[in-house]
């Protein structure tokens, strides 16, 4: 004779879609995060102008809020600041990248 399923288990959502949804959502979040990082890097490095340049230290200090908000990783910030060390960063584009 088959054993009946307890009513408490019937109410629990044991469906495949519900168990995989959080992981799928996290994957979308990660790819969006990476897209944001690429966009900021393109804006910051690709629009370098000599007349309105910041030092690497000022630049890193200005992007730290992005790390705090989870838009950029500390590792990415280090790579970006190194890339910008010998080039100017346009203040307007940096402000745009930060969403100001």
Automatic annotation (TrEMBL):
Listed Polar residues bias regions: 8-17
Gene3D superfamilies according to UniProt: 3.40.47.10
Region described as Disordered: spans on this chain: 1-35
One GO MF term attached to the UniProt entry: acyltransferase activity
Protein name according to UniProt: Uncharacterized protein
Native species: Haptolina brevifila
């Amino acid at each position: 004779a088959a054993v009946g399923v307890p009513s408490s288990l019937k109410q629990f959502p044991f469906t495949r879609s519900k168990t995989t949804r959080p992981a799928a959502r996290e994957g979308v979040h990660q790819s969006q995060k990476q897209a944001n990082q690429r966009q900021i890097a393109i804006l910051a490095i690709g629009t370098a102008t000599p007349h309105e340049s910041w030092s690497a230290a000022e630049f890193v200090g200005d992007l730290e809020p992005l790390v705090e908000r989870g838009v950029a990783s500390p590792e990415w910030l280090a790579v970006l600041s190194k890339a910008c060390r010998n080039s100017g960063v346009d203040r307007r584009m940096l402000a745009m990248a930060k969403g100001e």
